[in-house]
Amino acid sequence: MPRERYGRVRLMGRGVTPTSYFGSQASSHGTTFDRVAELENEMAEMRRVAQEKEEERQRELDEIKRGFDTRCEAMEARFMETLMQRTSLSRMLGEQDEY
Q1: Dist CA 68 CA 56 (whole Å)
Q2: Which residues of 4-29 are buried (b: 16+ CB within 10 A; e: fewer)?
Q3: Widest CA span of the chain, in angstroms?
Q4: Which sequence ranges form a coiled-coil region, renumbered to this chain (predicted)?
Q5: According to the model, what pLDDT value does residue 62 have?
Q6: Element (H, E) at 31
Q7: What is the CA radius of gyration of the chain?
Q8: Nearest to 62 by CA among 74, 54, 51
Q9: Distance of CA 53 to CAs 44, 47, 48, 63, 64, Å?
Q10: pLDDT below 50 — which residues of the chain?
Q11: What pLDDT is recorded for position 15?
C-alpha cells in the first residue's frame, strides 16, 4: 500500500477528501450544538407539561378531599342528630316508666 497522503481517504478512490467523505467538522459541530439546544428545549417543554399535569392532579386531589370532608361532616351531623333523638327518646321512656 502506498504511504498515507494528507487530505485523502484511503480506499475511497481519487479525489475523495475527508471533508467530502465525513463532512465538515464545523458543520457537524454546529449541528451537534443545534441538536443539543433542540433537545434541551424539548426537555424544558416536557418538564413544563409534567409540572402542569402535576398541578392539575393536585387540584383534583384537593377537590376529592373537600368532597370527602363535606360528606364526613354531613354523616357526623346525622349521627349526632340520631344520637340526640335516641337519647331524648330514652329519657322520655324512662320518665314514663316512673309513673
Answers
A1: 18
A2: eeeebeeeeeeeeeeeeeeeeeeeee
A3: 130
A4: 36-63
A5: 97
A6: helix 25-98
A7: 40
A8: 54
A9: 14, 10, 9, 15, 16
A10: none
A11: 67
Cell for 60?
A: 383534583
Residue 94 CA to residue 28 CA, distance in Å, equals 97
Q: Is the dihedral of CA 54, 57, 61, 67 positive or negative?
A: positive
Q: Which residue has the cell 494528507?
A: 6
What is the grid cell recorded at 16?
A: 475523495
Q: Which residues make Cβ contacts (< 8 Å) with residue 17, sequence separation at least 6?
A: 7, 8, 9
Quickly list DSSP for 35-73: HHHHHHHHHHHHHHHHHHHHHHHHHHHHHHHHHHHHHHH
